[in-house]
Amino acid sequence: MISVAEAIEIVKQQTHVLETERVRLDQVLGRVLAEDVIADSDLPPFDRSQMDGYAVRAEDVRTAPVRLRIVGESAAGKGWHQELAEGQAVRIMTGAPVPAGADSVQQVELTHELKDGSVVELLETVEAGKSIVKRGAEIQAGEAVLSAGAKINAAMMAVLAAFGYANVQVFRKPRVAILATGTELVAVDQKPGQDQIRDSNNYSISAYAELAGAVVERMPLTGDETSLLKTQIAAATECCDLIVTSGGVSMGVYDVTKAALKELDAEIFFERVALRPGKPTVFARLPNGALVFGLPGNPVSVSVTFNLFARTALLALQGATEPTLKRETAALARAVKGTTERESYLPAQLTTNDDAELIAFPLKWGGSSDFVAFALTTALVIVPANVRSMEAGSVVNVLRLP
Ligand code: AMP
Ligand code: MG
Q1: Which ligand is closest in space to the CA of residue 245?
Q2: Ligand 1 mutation pick, 179, 201, 226, 282, max ligand atoms within 8 A of CB
Q3: Whose CA is nearest to atom 6 of ligand 1?
Q4: SS3 for 3?
Q5: Distance CA 22, CA 133 (A)
Q6: Secondary element (H or E) of residue 54
Q7: What is the pTM of this model?
Q8: Are 118 and 101 in contact (CB under 8 A)?
């Protein structure tokens, strides 16, 4: 049995980055950048007004009130491109270029324009530099603004657009085959008969896989027969970089996933992790290079093990700089129990208290089959192995779930 940390390390070592491709900007949300993004211009590209008001020479407004002659107007997209002289002002809008000669902008609220529009009265003095963002103050041309390995979020879309990345070099999306074992399973549109249940794992797995940037290929339900499972796994390697199975990895007579993998000459990297829930998780590689995660069948174990291991592989395949869920610390809202030899990952919700501390509220759950309780889970509380219990108020590591 290996530790969770060792298992994650093995997953990272055995996962190779996929090739990259050029993709249109409107298609790259959620993809991982394969190039550094370089600013092709200064930001702002000219001295920019932060206010609606008047561009002036601060020197002319050392005492107030004072009247200046309005000699022009500078709007966003249509500047006034002459030089401001002593005693003059230019009416200016937010986002517009500040004319040469002006060194400050007084906001409109602190001015009074005379009726014919030829003169403005400034009611207060102005300091040089007021309400102007100098050219290049935010970003200078040539600077790297985003780094390869970042997962592109909505805010990054604006950065890519602003610097002209109409097409973006990103890593190819991994293709994932999902395959549920279990004679008891029927499809979601069927009424379960005697001894049957609906397959739910394929839906949580495909959802988590899509959140991790993968394209999902669903294989038919395979039952518990080694030969059929072998056929399906072999078919899955035709389409996919990674295969995620659920069920059939425990010690029961019908737990045939490992047997199928061995008969397919898979190289097994681990098959037991010191983890609760999710001890019998399998990680392997088939001779053609496809990676396989054999997750246990219980729905909560599936969610925990997918997010610890399969998600890491999917993000590593895409060249992500941070392929694992980030560990944070929180204070426990109530006591939890650990277990011997295995690290526990317990369902919880995160909130903050009035002192702005992060609080982990462990949920009541009925064990690794309780997928209904898990639906309310936003984070996992990590209890180290061999810790019998942790009291309310203890500081714990937590992982936010996607
Ligand atoms: P197993 O790991 O195959 O022994 O399955 C453990 C438990 O998870 C059993 O109660 C199974 O019925 C249940 N289970 C297995 N696969 C699925 C699935 N795809 N959807 C929902 N429950 C499942
Ligand atoms: Mg089973």
Answers
A1: 1
A2: 201
A3: 297
A4: coil
A5: 34
A6: strand 53-56
A7: 0.92
A8: no
Which of 197, 225, 295 to mutate for ligand 1's pocket (most ligand atoms within 8 Å of CB)? 197
Choose among 133, 56, 47, 128: nearest CA to 91.
56
Which atom of ligand 1 lies nearest, measured to the CA of 280? 2
Chain length of the chain:
402
Per-residue model confidence as pLDDT tens for the chain (402 residues): 999 999 999 999 999 999 999 999 999 999 999 999 999 999 999 999 999 999 999 999 999 999 999 999 999 999 999 999 999 999 999 999 999 999 999 999 999 999 899 999 999 999 999 999 999 999 999 999 999 999 999 999 999 999 999 999 999 999 999 999 999 999 999 999 999 999 999 999 999 999 999 999 999 999 999 999 999 999 999 999 999 999 999 999 989 999 999 999 999 999 999 999 999 999 999 999 999 999 999 999 999 999 999 999 999 999 999 999 999 999 999 999 999 999 999 999 999 999 999 999 999 988 889 999 999 999 999 999 999 999 999 999 999 999
Q: Is 246 in the pocket of ligand 1 (CB under 6 A)?
A: yes
Nearest to 380 by CA among 340, 346, 342: 346
Looking at all shown ligands, the one closest to residue 187's CA atom is 1
Secondary structure letter of residue 98 according to DSSP: P
Whole-angstrom distance, CA of residue 200 vs CA of residue 32: 29
- Between CA 115 and CA 174 the distance in angstroms is 66
Query: Based on the number of CB atoms within 10 Å of its own CB, is 198 exposed (0-12), middle (13-18) or buried (19 or more)?
Result: middle
Taking the centre of ligand 1 as the mean of its atom positions, its distance from the CA of residue 73, in whole angstroms, is 71
Alpha-carbon distance of 299 to 43, in angstroms, equals: 49
Does residue 199's CB lie within 6 angstroms of at least one atom of ligand 1? yes
Distance CA(131)–CA(120), nearest Å, equals 18
Tokens, residue 20: 């990259």
Q: Which atom of ligand 1 is nearest to the CA of 199?
A: 20
Residue indicated by tokens 């796994």: 233
- d(CA 110, ligand 1 centre) in Å: 70
365/374 Cα distance (integer angstroms): 8
320 residue type, one letter: A
**Token digits of residue 27:** 């298609």
DSSP 101-124: T--EEEEGGGEEE-TTSSEEEE-S
Alpha-carbon Rg for the chain in angstroms: 30
